[in-house]
Design a protein that fits this description.
The protein is of the alpha+beta class and about 700 residues long. Alpha-D-galactopyranose binds near residues 328, 475 and 476.
């Protein structure tokens, strides 16, 4: 007997089938099937043959492949009973229920008193699948691994793009072939981490940003994930995501984080746009619009807080166009460097004898909002908190410190209450619109309760202070995922304010993140994390590609630099309403030295393309840059916004250098833009409008 289900829209179809009441398998995932397709026939047609040298029935590559089926690969569940014996459930269909945009399927093993529930949703506006597995047990059990609903990827895919990285180089992508065996990522840092963004894109050798097929995944969880991309010995391929190994404990109820997934027939961009829109419109709640221009004082003053100096900096930042001033680390306890005071969330009277009010009043008078830095989950041993509650620290006493700090045990209600009370006190007594929420070290143990405790604390603060926006920072991009974005409004993508590095990081992060949540700041002339010296135009335009801000000491700017920054900031302000709602389309540059993207308005009426030359090109002539996502029949007017930046060595007369270009979408997408010659470490900015 076959039961079948369809989750789909006009962009993709996912067909699930349960054979003889066993766990459901995705028997089809790909382009949308025509209405009226007989699902039962498809399901039966998908059954593979059996031959010599194998068992008599292929074990189902189900939403939770079972050990009891002798599944020849990673199973979806690994659990033990109270006495430590492995549990090998064999689930059978119990019930189904339709939800608003999806379904809930319930399976049970009555002999073990276990039930397995799959919550499956396809968000219609974004065509993104949101899939979750729940396990319920009558008796207490221990679960070592529970995968979110497991999906096969079709035989015609052969490659995967996965993510690694490090501090100041987040979202590094790596394209690997599928081969027999598994590619396993087990992030045991206890946080999402710079090195382990929980994403995967499965594709073909020919898939590019703008063409080809892709199956993309993201696990929305902040506590560290495990991913298995496996080619079974029989040739089938599966993708599993769940919490990092050993992060689940004993209990009766277990639930995976949501796995977001989508199929794209239009290259990586097809998937990226769905993730971007989903984050912007469905995950993030209540972000302020228009997105205000930030000023963050970290790289200007570090721990040296002087009221008059900060006021002078704030005045200059406002003059440059900033609308939100974020007071970074150093305002609390006796925090003169990073060796003390985390946990003592009380304003430092040495630096602020009259509290923060004089600074906040000055900032408000300049028309800016005031934001403030916290690192709630952390504690220094040199703090009143640690002296009073050494037992609140997570992990062993002799653990290695990270940035001289320890982690508070967020599963402890007393810890959360303490943090809530102190943060709430600062928020109640000061006019604060924004928190930069930091998390500067990995955990000493892998522990899902830590992330759950963090979620609970943020949720409580969000519900009591709904007007306060929160930024997720973790030494830059160490905690970026849809779990944290459900509770925050912006991510600090990287501690690197090096615009060249930022170009690459922003480009790869756009596979999942929209501009509206991606913080990008104009850093100091001499970059503090790379040692490079970069021109203000490159720095300003790079920040203007995302949620813009400044982080240098504005007193270092020459008048010419300040003028450039003012101009680019006004350009950003004039365009942010549509740009923060636009799709970021990564362009396939024919020159590997160029990182390029096109931000396209939802209605296709306008766009802006940014093309950064990150190093000298191998060839002498700039290669035409092909655009994407335009109507081939439509006509467009294009203008090179910063044509005045063309250097003297650009001696010829390419049309865009002197005048606007009117051309069809077909020409722009097929031939592409012929841009003027320029020096490396520059960005061309091209605006386009549909006529
Ligand atoms: C982390 C953040 C920085 C800054 C410092 C303050 O490194 O990523 O932006 O806030 O902490 O200590």
């Amino acid at each position: 007997m076959i039961r079948s289900w369809h989750l789909g829209d006009d962009r993709q179809s996912l067909v699930l089938a349960s054979f003889d009441d066993r766990l459901p398998e995705a028997v089809y995932w790909g382009p949308a099937l025509p209405t009226g397709e007989n699902l039962e026939t498809l399901s039966a047609a998908a059954l593979a043959d059996v031959t010599g040298g194998m068992v008599d029935r292929n074990a189902g590559l189900s939403l939770c492949p079972e050990a009891s089926e002798s599944f020849p690969g990673q199973t979806g569940l690994t659990a033990r009973n109270a006495s430590g014996a492995p549990l090998m459930p064999s689930f059978r269909f119990e019930s189904e229920a339709a939800s608003e945009h999806g379904l809930t399927l319930v399976f049970a093993d009555n002999s073990l008193d276990l039930s397995l529930v799959f919550d499956l949703v396809l968000t219609p506006e974004t065509s993104l699948l949101k899939l979750q597995t729940r396990l319920e047990s009558v008796d207490e059990i221990t679960v070592d691994w529970l995968a979110a609903p497991v999906l096969p990827v079709p035989a015609y895919t052969g490659e995967m793009i996965e993510f690694s990285g490090r501090w100041c180089a987040e979202f590094l992508t790596r394209r690997l072939p599928f081969a027999p065996g598994s590619r396993v990522r087990d992030n045991r840092t206890g946080r999402t981490d710079h090195a382990h963004f929980p994403g995967l894109v499965v594709c073909n050798a020919g898939t590019s940003n703008t063409a080809g097929e892709a199956f993309a995944f993201h696990y929305g969880w902040s506590g560290g994930h495990k991913m298995v991309a496996e080619e079974l010995a029989d040739g089938r391929r599966q993708v599993q995501f769940g919490h990092a190994t050993a992060s689940l404990a004993s209990g009766r109820h277990f639930v995976s984080a949501p796995l977001y997934a989508t199929y794209s027939a239009t290259g990586f961009n097809g998937a990226a746009v769905r993730f971007q829109r989903h984050v912007r419109d469905h995950v993030v709640q209540g972000a302020r619009t228009p997105r205000p221009v930030h000023y963050n004082c970290w790289e200007a003053v570090y721990f040296k807080h002087d009221l008059d100096e900060l006021k002078a900096i704030a005045s200059q930042a406002a003059d440059l166009g900033a609308e939100r001033f974020v007071l970074d680390d150093g305002w609390f306890g006796r925090r003169d460097d990073d060796t003390s005071s985390l946990g003592d969330w009380v304003i430092d009277k040495r630096k602020y004898p009259d509290g923060l009010t004089p600074l906040i009043d000055h900032i408000k008078a300049l028309g800016m909002e005031f934001g403030i830095w916290f690192e709630p989950e952390m504690v220094n041993e040199d703090s009143d908190l640690c002296r009073a509650h050494p037992d609140w620290v997570l992990g062993h006493a002799d653990q290695i410190r990270g940035r001289q700090q320890l982690v508070l045990d967020m599963s402890n209600q007393e810890v959360r209450d303490y943090l809530y009370a102190h943060i709430a006190d600062v928020l109640k007594n000061n006019d604060i619109g924004y928190i930069k929420w930091d998390h500067n070290r990995i955990l000493p143990v892998v522990d899902a309760e830590q992330a759950e405790g963090f979620y609970e604390l943020v949720d409580r603060l969000r519900s009591d202070f709904p007007a306060v926006e929160i930024e997720s920072c973790s030494s830059g991009g160490g905690r970026i995922d849809f779990g944290v974005l459900e509770r925050t409004h912006r991510v600090w993508l990287s501690d690197s304010n090096d615009a060249l590095e930022r170009q690459r990081i922003q480009h790869d992060a756009a596979l999942f993140l929209p501009a509206s949540v991606t913080g990008s700041h104009v850093g100091p002339r001499h970059c503090h994390t790379s040692g490079r010296t970069l021109d203000i135009r490159l720095r300003a335009w790079t920040a203007a590609q995302r949620h813009m801000g400044f982080e240098m000491d504005p007193r270092e700017l020459s008048e010419a630099e300040a003028e450039t920054l003012r101009n680019v900031t006004s350009w950003w302000k004039a365009n942010r309403d549509w740009m923060m709602q636009a799709d970021i389309l990564r362009l396939d540059s024919a020159d590997p030295a160029v990182i390029a993207e096109q931000q396209l308005a939802g209605d296709g009426s306008r766009f802006v393309a940014f093309a950064a030359l990150t190093r000298p090109s191998d060839q002498i002539l700039p290669r035409p840059l092909r655009l994407t996502g335009l109507d081939p029949q439509g006509r467009y007017r294009l203008s090179l916004v910063n044509r005045d930046d063309a250097p003297r060595l650009s001696r010829g007369a390419p049309l865009l250098k002197h005048q606007d270009l009117e051309a069809s979408g077909q020409y722009l997408m097929s031939h592409g833009l012929t841009l003027p010659w320029r020096f490396p470490e520059t960005v061309w900015v091209v605006e386009g409008e549909r006529l």
